[in-house]
């Protein structure tokens, strides 16, 4: 049974795992300043990071949560996933392999 590339129906694993994974990755990119601040604080604080980096951790959580709770952001990530899935169903080649450059000299 061949799958229709244009099919928009999502399985539970796609809704609950794969799309949220894309959301996490994109949110971390968009909150990169907060991620950098928190990372820097943790590196500088060592064992005491739990106590010393509360402000940076709160700022990071706030930024990420804003994206996770944004329905428009979910739809954006869902459309990106559906586009990748459609391309995979057409070509049979996963996105990661398609994006890898072919060797120039053989």
From TrEMBL:
Family: Belongs to the CMC family.
Mitochondrion as UniProt keyword: yes
Pfam families referenced in this protein's UniProt entry, alphabetically: Cmc1
Name under which the protein is recorded: COX assembly mitochondrial protein
Main location: mitochondrion
UniProt keyword list: Disulfide bond, Mitochondrion
Domain of life: Eukaryota
Subcellular locations according to the entry: Mitochondrion
Cellular component, GO, one term: mitochondrion
């Amino acid at each position: 049974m061949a799958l229709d590339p244009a099919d928009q129906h999502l399985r539970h694993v796609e809704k609950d795992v794969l799309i949220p994974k894309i959301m996490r990755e994109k949110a971390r990119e968009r909150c990169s300043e907060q991620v950098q601040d928190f990372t820097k604080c943790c590196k500088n604080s060592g064992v005491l990071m739990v106590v010393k980096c509360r402000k940076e951790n709160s700022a990071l959580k706030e930024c990420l949560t804003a994206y996770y709770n944004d329905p428009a952001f979910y739809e954006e990530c869902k459309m990106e996933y559906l586009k990748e899935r459609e391309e995979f169903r057409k070509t049979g080649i996963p996105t990661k392999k398609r994006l890898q450059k072919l060797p120039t000299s053989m």
